[in-house]
Specification:
The structure is a single chain. Helix content is 25%, strand content 13%. The protein has a domain of 91 residues: 30s Ribosomal Protein S19, Chain A (2-Layer Sandwich). By secondary structure, the protein is of the alpha+beta class. The strands form two sheets. Strands 3-4-5 form a three-stranded mixed β-sheet, with helices on one face. The chain has a two-stranded antiparallel sheet with strand order 1-2. The longest helix has 15 residues.
Amino acid sequence: MVKEFTYRGHTLEELQRMSMDEFIRLLPTRQRRSLQRGLTPQQRTFLEKIRNAKRTPRTDEKTIIRTHCRDMIILPEMIGLTIALHDGKTFTNIDIAPEKIGHYLGEFAITNKKVVHGIPGIGASRSSMYVPLK
């Protein structure tokens, strides 16, 4: 048996039919306060791109929307899209699933990577002069 997705007691279809004000009341405090202050111009243009992509779906390939807007909260109308989010160096593709509703986009594209050091060799540092060569 497949469990149906619910967010705070509401199904996905109910969430998508809600107005923005009704949905905002369901969010945790930080996200609710952020959206009640209004969207930034960058967030507005991003939301318009999403709505345009939903209106004119491409059948040949999946639409990927590129953005730098890491502080945008994932809304029910974003479900099913692929968003390329900038992590400071590259764009990371994020598939928006219902479980991600209410989270910030930036949570899914990590900005720092694990440092992988190379092996010491000639010229790597001053101390590498004393490392015996193989």
